[in-house]
Design brief:
Layout (H helix, E strand, L loop, with lengths): L15 H10 L6 E2 L11 H12 L12 H15 L6 E4 L1 H13 L5 E6 L3 H9 L3 E6 L8 H7 L4 E7 L11 H13 L3 E5 L21 E6 L12 E4 L2 H12 L7 H10 L5 H18 L13 E2 L8 H10 L2 E2 L1 E2 L10 E4 L4 H17 L1
Parallel strand pairs: 1-10, 3-4, 3-5, 5-6, 6-7
Antiparallel strand pairs: 2-8, 7-8, 9-12, 11-12
Helix pairs in contact: 1-11, 2-9, 4-5, 4-8, 10-12
Length: 370
């Protein structure tokens, strides 16, 4: 059979880093899995019951493209409670990933440059490239702080967008108010749109994570339910921002996702009435366990949020260290998947404390042997 034709855009996607990890892991019978970026608790029962009731009541058809009015109003009210005001339109999306795709489709032309702090969530680079955009990486090593000078130096006359993610995947870094003010100042000076991916906003362990939303009128805010309420498979997020952009995203959603899943929009209303603080408290304990357990043998920054830590790999190669870790039965992800460097690795502390402790013991032993 002759080769089947693939679009040129497929050349912009490289899944080899993660694929290699899972190819190696396939040989393991019972690995210590510290690689998965999803909570290990289940969806709250009240949300399950609301979803089940909605399905049984026939809430299984399309909603309006922008999402149920009651949910959009509840989200706007949440913003008003947090920031004091919200007069911007809200769009319910099929996950924050769906929101990112719609946002990039609506705002990026071929050749446009997008500022991406490095390390970064793996999807950013590939989505920008798929649309013909150019990701411009702003180095934040070694402490994962976004510096005004580095950001300003990366701006050109082709720069259109600044992408922020705080709390961050893969580093767990939370932007300080000063960092955020500097980033907003750069964006304002150059008339850049800020896309603020705040999917981990609830997972801020040392005080609330500041947001650029109230600071600048060109901010598209993306949040979701997947991490806070363990709804990763329910694909539910939301966007709020400048009317022309949200309107364009809504039009694009009509011709792509159509709408977010209707029964789960009902469940989201229940989620907004629940208190996730017990889960957040548990993850704070895990953050402390992981950091304290690694800091003696690894060069590592203490994460302020999310549920990841990004240590420097002994020996200098993230891929080589991860291969050794997998051979020893611990699944972690090489840093080159999330960065233009391959010097670190990502550990997700989304397992119980006993499993985490076992994994730390193995990783420290490997560090001693490096």
């Amino acid at each position: 059979m002759p080769d089947l034709p693939l679009a040129d855009r497929m050349q912009h996607i490289d899944a080899s880093g993660i694929r290699k990890v899972f190819d190696l892991a396939a040989r393991l019978e019972d690995p210590i899995n510290l690689s998965i970026g999803q909570p290990d608790f289940d969806v709250p029962d009240v949300c399950k019951e609301r979803a089940i009731a909605a399905i049984r009541e026939g809430v299984n058809r399309y909603t309006v493209t922008q999402g149920e009015a009651a949910l959009r109003e509840a989200l706007a009210e949440r913003l008003r409670a947090e920031f004091g005001a919200c007069d911007a339109p809200v769009l319910v999306t099929s996950g924050v990933s769906g929101g990112l795709l719609l946002a990039f489709l609506a705002t990026i032309n071929p050749g446009d440059e997008v500022l991406v702090p490095d390390p970064y969530f793996v999807m950013y680079k590939h989505l920008v490239g798929l649309l013909g955009g150019v990701p411009v990486f702003v180095d934040t090593y070694p402490d994962f702080r976004l510096r005004r000078e580095a950001l300003e130096a990366a701006v050109t006359d082709r720069t259109r967008l600044l992408l922020l993610n705080s709390p961050a995947n893969p580093t767990g870094a939370v932007m300080t108010p000063a960092e955020l003010e500097a980033a907003v100042e750069v964006a304002r000076r150059h008339d850049l749109l800020i896309v603020s991916d705040e999917i981990y906003d609830a997972y801020a362990y040392d005080g609330p994570a500041p947001s650029p939303w109230p600071m600048y009128d060109r901010v598209l805010l993306l949040r979701g339910f997947s991490k806070t309420f363990a709804m990763t498979g329910w694909r539910l997020g939301w966007a709020v921002g400048p009317e022309p952009i949200v309107s364009a995203m809504t039009t694009l959603q009509q011709y792509t996702f159509v709408c977010a899943p209707s029964p789960f929009q009902q469940a989201a209303l229940a989620a907004l009435e629940t208190d996730p603080s017990p889960y957040i408290k548990a993850f704070r304990r895990r953050r402390d366990l992981v950091y304290e357990g690694l800091k003696e043998r690894f060069s590592v920054a203490r994460p302020g949020g999310a549920f990841y830590i990004f240590p420097k790999a002994p020996g200098g190669s993230g891929t080589a260290f991860v291969e050794r870790a997998i051979e020893a039965g611990v699944l972690v992800i090489p840093g080159g998947v999330f960065s233009e460097r391959d010097t670190h690795f990502r550990l997700a502390y989304t397992a119980d404390e006993e499993t985490i402790a076992r994994g730390l013991e193995v990783l420290n032993r490997l560090a001693d042997d490096a």
